[in-house]
Protein 1
Amino acid sequence: MIAAPAMLSSVLALAEGPLDAHAAPELRWAGLALLLPLASSVLCLLCGWLKVRSKLPAALTIAALGGAFATILRLQGTVGETPVVVNLFDWIDLTWGDGSRFHGFTANVDLYIDRLTVFWMLFVTGLGTLIALYASEYMESDVGKGYTRFFGAVSIFLFAMGCLVMGGNLVMLYLGWEGVGLASYLLIGYYFTKPEAVAAAKKAFIVNRIGDLGLALALFLIWQCYGTVEYAALWKAIEAAPASSEWTAQAIPWLLMLGAFGKSAQLPLYVWLPDAMEGPTPVSALIHAATMVTAGVYLIARMFPLFVVNPDALAAVAWVGGLTALLAATIGMAQYDMKRIWAYSTISQLGYMFLGLGVGTTFGASYHVFTHAFFKALLFLTAGAVMHGFAGQLDIRKLSGLLKVPGFRLVSVLAVLGCFWLAAFPFTAAFFSKDEILVSAFTAKDDRVHLLGWIGLLVAALTAYYTFRVCFRVFFGPVKFEPGHELHGHDDHDHAHDAHAHHGEFHPHGPRWAIRVPLVLIAIGAILAGWPSYRTMLHHDESNWVKTQVAQSSAFQGVAAESHGSLDGHAASSHASAHTEDAHADHGHLVLGMDAHTAVGRLGSLACIVGILVSLYVHLINRGTADALRRTLMGTVATRWIVVGAERKWMVDEFYDWVIRLPLRVIANILSAIDELLLDAGIVNGIGALPAAVGRVFRPLYGGVVQGYAVTMAGGVALVAAWVIWIWLRGAN
Amino acid sequence: MGDLDLAAGSELNMNLIWASILIPVATAAVIAVANARAARGLAAVGSLASLGALAAFAWQFPAWSTGGVSPEPGGCAWIASINATLGIGFDSVSLLLALLEALLIPICVIGSWSAITDRQREYYGWFMLLHASILLAFAARDVLLFYVGYEFTLVPLLFIIAIWGGPERRQAAHKLFLYTFLGSLFFLGSILFVGWQHHASTGLWSWDMGTLSSFASTRLPANTQYWLFAALLAGFAVKVPLFPVHTWLPLAHNQAPTAGSVILAGTLLKLGTYGIFRLALPMAPEGGAALAVFAAVLCTVAVIYAALICWVQTDAKKLVAYSSVSHLGICMLGLFALNPIGAQGSVLYMINHGLSTGALFLLIGMAYERYHVKDMDQIGGLAKRMPVWAFFMVFFTMSSIGLPGLNGFVGEYLCLFGTYIATGDASTKYPGLLGPGFALVAGTGLILGAMYMLLLVGRYVFGPLREPKADSHGKHGHDGSHGHDAHGADHGDHDGHGDLTGREVGLLVPLALVCLFIGIYPKPILQAIGPVVERTLAPYPAAVERALMSKPQATEAVQAQAKEDDRG
């Protein structure tokens, strides 16, 4: 709370500066980024209606997503330091009274375009296009079956994600927020005859809904405090009325946080993401690793002006992120399904991003989102290529030495490359982005988060270990593999792959160009993502592209709060507020006697290399030791819980089941019984039994049917009379 | 508006409204004497003509879209001695609900073509009368006329359930009749009381809604208004239905034939919410302000209570039936927020609920026609057999659980929003009595709604295919499901279990398009509703202020009393 005034002053500076958005109707074409995916989803629906049995839906989707990417590229050239608001059409626009503030509620279909928007959309649409291309081959066994449904849902996803990122108000964001939830639901449940897939889809939607409720309530609160939910007006309102200490203003970040944790799979709402791996692998890569799950990071970065005024909320974000990173890493170490390991690593990496947000470096968090998007997509897509070629096999105990399997060399090389990135090997892009976050954790003004720097370093070692566990098991070592049982989990076993299996020898088939090209391009992207940092390092040039993109947006506070590195351009110079000076004072923060930056760089490298070396010994040089270690740990009661806990995901799912779902189910059954027996049969007919004697008198006159009327009517009268008496008693007081 | 309305125009619009009400009556008369096989065609033509007349009215006389009433109050005498008139006219709220009714009726009629095979003349005849009486209730500007339409709906509905319903149809029909009839007695008593008071005070009889509302709200003392509101609420609560007088609804829904459920959920329940909006709120603002919290508590309980019950249902139709109780809880909560956001959301919610729940009942009926089973323990995974049906199921489920971009979201969101901001704070001009607590608790309905609806979809639509043994197959007519011989070749005994026919798709597409339209561009509807809502709520800020003021005073009085007691 002490830092709040300083932070506020920079909020004030921010609002009168480059964030003073202006309307730009000439940029309406930017709406194409939303319109094209929407059109493609409608066309896919049409294809489904016409029973198209070709790859046309894929072609349509790729073209539309490519178009959206081109639109965003052009926007990147156009958009300046000033955010612009583009009104597409009016959606919800209510006014009453004199129509002034608090006498109206506006949430139109507006686009709010600043550099952060464009930055996020660049990798969303770019990766979306590439992954759609990949999926066009990956899903080809479903041509004529679910193919159109798949691409229709992918298009809906890109449309919704566009609304989420580009929307000009929080209701648009909410539209996209729930829209990506729908796409996720449809795609996780793609193999809808599989009960696990249906259950996973349902779980994802419901757990997300819990977060969505937080987001919805946050919207109400924001309107109640500031009278608007449109970004442009909101920044102005914050400027005009610095956040009060009333509970309403203080509660906003907590509720937003809940929404972000749901969508981005953080504690306590992360449980849906591992199960989401039931979806086809391209979906896991696109939605559940690279793009959708970063929406929570976007939300907090975008709404950062509401967070800076509440250091407690920021500390909570940091701690939730750090603990999630740790928990997910421990689970990831003990899993055997390659996709699930990558899923837990996604949760863990997202934890880093929230840690970054919590310690104030929106730049570090956004940069990590960016680098992570590429290498995690690469890892998932290579996993998918393996799965595709080995008839659904994902168990890392049953795959070995793929580097030497013909047709899989490129895939394996790229996967190994991806592993280096995920492990944040020194001088990879992820190394720099993680570095930013950990340095900020060590140097943050808030003492409560310094410990998280150490936790982050520990997680870095664990990450390196489990990443290379997969790498050494699957891609190195002697060639040995067992095919899986299923064909991409689909229930129709009428495909040529099974014919292979029947003929004794299994021949894994390598991917063709539509899978290889996106893989190579994404790998290049992963390497290039480090470019801004290489420039900084080699040329001592502080003008980091990502930093510029993030700085010229509402996430600016984070950059200002950061301890080192001044911004290029006028963003930094014109906002050299007292706050930035504070930040520079922190620069002298020492870790193990070293400057924080040097220390984190060295310790991070060390953690990574130690993790890899342990993995190298246990999983490649002497593969027996891992099993021996597991046996030893299992052997004594004192250590048994470690193995069992990690392998069974610390029983969090079971815990929720027992503590929340089961009691709720019991209550629901009781209520159902009450409704049928007590309210209905009991009260209505029970009270009705009193005048039944009266009814008997009249029975000869009207017959049984009318008696039934009388009985029930009397019961109803009694009920309503009781109600009225109750109201009367209440009124009388 | 008065100067714009030429005499000729006024007559035409009056005639169009009467045409939309009387065409179904005439159709019923023709059906009664016509060939039984022609009944369904006649009913379809009659209901479409009625829709056409109403649409023509809406198109020709757009006064409603800016908050006006058309035609102007007044109408020919009906019972001259007490000055009851045949006053009809629409404003945006009543017209939108009437349009919903007129849209649903042809869908119900054509949807019944394959489901109803016996006593067709009676069935379609009763349906036409039901339609006419619902339209009459929405169109009425005279409370007695409203009462006639409101009350007469019971008769056709009773027959429709009691003759063409499920195995427990008798019980369902009795319960429906008694509950709602009893409710209407409260309602009738209240309006007779107000009319009598008006006569006693001014010496004139009047039953015009506007006149009585302004009289009751300004001239009746607060205590009387309290009782008036309580009685009207008691009357309409049964119809809505509010917890705990909802127990007739699940049974009635479950036993009614598909079309009966569609109309019941679609517009009959809306007569209750419309009654509260149109009569209870404007007539007794003091009572409304005093009882808003009480009603809101009932609504909130209903949201969670019914949602949890939905969650453990295995019967698909019963699940959707209970969901109505939960949904209407949110709808009424928005109304009792007593601010424009909540009330506009509430009116929109009435329409949305009719569309999406109506469509869900229709879809469940379509599957029922094929399998004669609604129990999800026996049937499931139908997406494999009926992908088009599955598409619509998912679509309307999403509409029902308020996915943004579809209709449900806008209404639900505004209802909760309105509830949230309904605090004592006067900066919005409309102070309220609810606030964040209510919104938070009712907001869990968003989560619970997703839980039970996705349970329905997950078991009934998705998952492994589970079909009952083809036992009852062939006993009932399957007019709608022939033309699937190609499937029959593949699936042996499953012919007749094919996907939706063109007729069925044709019924669902208009509903889906309206859902999409409202979701994407609700502006014209909200703009039309806005002024009416503001007019209805006009006396409320002052009344709520008084209610807010009286609360602390009451507590102070209690405290003072307690102090005195201590001393004594």
Protein 2
Amino acid sequence: MKPALHNFQNKKRQFLMIVAASKPFQEIKQMLSGFKKVCVLGCGSCVTICHTGGEKQVAELAAQIRLAAKLEGRQVEVLEDSTLRQCEWEFIDDIKEIIKDCDAVLSIACGVGVQYMAERFPRIRIFPGVNTTFMGGPTEQGIFWERCAGCGNCILATTGGLCPVSRCAKSLMNGPCGGSQNGKCEVSQETPCVWNQIYDQLDTQQLLATMETIVPPKDWTTGMENHPRKMVIEHLVMKK
Amino acid sequence: MANLYTKSDKKINEEAPCILACPIRQDARDYVQLIARGRFSEAYRLVRERNPLPSACGRICTHPCETKCRRNSTEAPIAIAWLKRFLGDNFSEETRKNFTEKYPEKIAIIGAGPAGLAAANDLALLGYSCTIFESNPTPGGMLRMGVPTYRLPRTAIDNDVEFIKKLGAEIKYNTTLGADITFDSLKKEGFSAIFISVGLLESRTLNIEGVNLEGVLKGVSFLHEVNTAGNAKIGKNVLVIGGGAVAMDCARTALRLKPDKVSVACLESRKEMPTTDFEIEETIHEGAILYNSVGPKRIIGKNGKVSGLETLKVKYVFDEQKRFNPAFYEGSESVIEADTIILAIGQASNLSFLKGQEGIQVTRGGTIIVNPHTFSTAVHGIYAGGDVVLGRGTMTECMAQGKKAAISIHNALRNATLKDEKWAEKPAVPDIAAPKIALIKKEQKQDMPTMPSDKRLDNFEEVELGFSLNTAVKEAQRCMNCGAGAFVDDNLCVGCLTCVRICPFEVPKIKKGDTTAYIDGDCQSCGLCIVECPAKAISFKTPLEDRGKDSLEAIFKDKYIQGVKPLIINFYCQYSAYKEEKERATDNLLVFHFRRIGVLGLGKVDPSLYLKAFELGAHGLLITACKDDECHFCKEKEWVEKRTKYTTQILSGLGMDARRFQIQFVSSQNGKEIIDIAFKMVEELRNSSI
């Protein structure tokens, strides 16, 4: 058997799945007020897949901005474009010619993309059009769930492949807590209790005994407590 | 295939079977799709682009397109030919006024039948001056001499031929090759190429006792006499020998001459008969008696006149090698009484004009041998096509030869390599995958209205009355747009799987090892995925479907539109039973405040197009979508609801009055209901401060 990934060789794109939610339009309108020429810039990666930052969203948002301006009797020119990934210098460099006359760019990429744009085009005001929300994926068409908190110290090996850091309201290491009821989390009846799921999973794998092991407090310094984080792949680093 | 409306065919990798089945590669799917959208003149233009004889073809074509139609899997094929007839009968096109001949060469065409007319049409369009020499006083060839008027009224031929004449082709009547003109005289007159399309003018005869008795008629001559001179004489009891289309024509023609009895006897069993079921049924329906599986042994006579046919029972018609080789049961003789026998067992050529042209090779069956690619005979500059080459061809096969010969003549004269890419081989869209048949809504085929059978036999009036506009649209809307549905651009697809998950027909797939979606020929063109694709990677393969965009822009190009207040744009689904009168009535009543945009299924319309309508200056939008059980695609109502709700949210976020965007699930069929809704909306908007 070939490894599964082998099937995808020569294919152009693979994604992290960063999920972002559209900002309320009122907020966007406020950010853009006063600008005469605006470019709505989409990103062809994660945010396209979660339907908030792709070409389609660019067209919809641009139409909304134009309509809002018309209703208020303002004149605004709205350009529409997209990049393959806004988190690559090479890809956003292509956009220079298009946005050079713009007063502002509304980037509907994740926070990474917005910052790349801001760094590359310091003279142009760059605004975020989405709230970057979490790392996750669609569990069914149109429904996205958080699956990873980027804690920098993965413990999925001991939890049956289900992450309590991102999926437990309290990020408990030894669950479930007393708030777990009928398999749901007390925080929201919509949210499954991940520790309940971990229990079931370990039961299936006949590893229930591992539940007995008390996990010591997690070292959170690898996570969000310690940003900005940096990763270096030595052999790829080029001498300047 | 590329045409006026599909332009680039790069996206079409599998072609619709109806198009591939047609000898002239008529763009059947595309003209049917245009009719479905009510774009009749464009549909006519598209037909005419490919087909020099649309009115005639829409009536008597054997329509292999319908045999291959993928709707056969769900219930019945689209009435493609009848739809073409509908166009030919009701629409026309002006030819270019300043038509100029580009090239100095003159082409002579012998015979104004389907092949000759097709060649003249295409050569004229290529820029040549052509002259057709026709031995009869009227054009059409076998269409006029052979096909009875109740199937093909002569005005239909005249209309088609008139158009070809307007293109610049000249027809010289009463001019017979071999008698009035010769190959040499044509050359002397300066014709650079000659295309022989004289057809098969003689009836084949039987080599049995009694064929020379008085009362034995030849099928082609009989039809010719009835159709042109109108002086055919038959007795009281007519028997037609033969089982093909000409035999049926002879029988039905004879019935109209009011004998006591008309029968048809043929070798073939009912299933083997070499004509369409429809023709056979109509013949029986009109009163002819059909004797299957009988072979003629001898014609019996009394006093030199026919009194009957002695027949033998047929063992088989085709032998094991499937060759025509009939065998009979010995001692199975019986007699069918008749005082007139019409032989309709095939046609033969009359090649007497070839005297002195020994270079032109001829088969034993009396057909001219040509190069199958160039249609050139062995003599330089002389080409041939149509029945005289095919032996026995259909109208479209003959036209195809004429068209191909035209290109070949052009290539030879110009030393060019012009190619008609439509004849290029392409794979056909395969049959609908079995599990999908259940997902496709069954749509009943529209019947052709016909003259009541008790009235038919008094005259030679056309039996099939033709589709009304409503029927034509309804029939056309059954078309599944095979091969021209949605298309995923590999370079844009991000593999998000949205299309895969939302398609009501389960068509989009990500093939194993692929990272992008693929939509095959089973696509029904509902357009849901096109709207939902976040990367805008999906589009229709042909620009024929604009999902309401062009219509919207066209509305605002009208310079008086600014004065209309309130201006309401009504997006409506064209599928729910198109009724012309009601549509017109609705349009007339709403003409001032309303502009209507019809789309084949509102699932194709992007919410951003609704925003755009407001941006362009609409004061209100009324979406009238089909009710649940009426949806052609079965599941679009849900999507229309979701999207309009989403649009409503956006608009209310912008502070827009909710009355400006309304959605109603009403049947477009019910004109009154729509008018009530529309008037209410006009009143509401007039009273608000918009």
